[in-house]
Amino acid sequence: MPGAPGAPERGDRLEAAASVLALLADRTRLALMERLGRGEADVTTLTEACGAARPSVSQHLAKLRLAGLVTTRKDGRRVVYALGHGHLRRLVDEALNAADHQLGSLPPHD
């Protein structure tokens, strides 16, 4: 809660939010986040889902991981990626819903 002891300052919150939105402003990263919103996946699955080259996907995943937006775990020799938290899934879903409205496939509503 802003203003509460230990709460981040408004400017810090805005800066952190702007950083998240800037990372999501890339089509490939947005596609990766959308796919991860449906569940964990490895690089091969994510490469197929977003249609980018594997080295590019790996670089985007590294940026998302470094920013704390995705997490990793080992499953044998595979690295499995997941969203850092549910807020990110909802943020991506809302961005895609807004795009649907902008493209005219959904009627306006509150």
Widest beta sheet: strand line-up = 1-3-2
Main sheet? 3 strands, antiparallel
Strand content: 5-15%
Radius of gyration: 16 Å
* Portion in helices: 55-70%
Total of DSSP H or I helical runs spanning 4+ residues: 5
Question: Termini distance?
Answer: 25 Å
- Report the count of strand segments: 3
Shape by Cα distribution: globular
Mean pLDDT: 92
Contiguous low-pLDDT stretches (5 residues minimum) are none
Question: What is the H-and-E element order?
Answer: HHEHHEEH
Classification by helices and strands: alpha+beta
Summary, kept brief:
This protein has 110 residues and is α+β, with helices and mostly antiparallel strands. The protein is 57% helix and 13% strand.
What can you tell me about this protein's structure?
The protein is α+β, with helices and mostly antiparallel strands. It is built from five helices and three strands. The protein has helices at residues 10-24, 27-36, 43-50, 54-66, 86-102, and strands at 41-42, 70-75, 78-83. It has a three-stranded antiparallel β-sheet with strand order 1-3-2. Strand 2 (70-75) and strand 3 (78-83) form a beta hairpin. Helix 2 packs across helix 3 and helix 2 (27-36) crosses helix 5 (86-102). The model has no long low-confidence stretch (mean pLDDT 92).
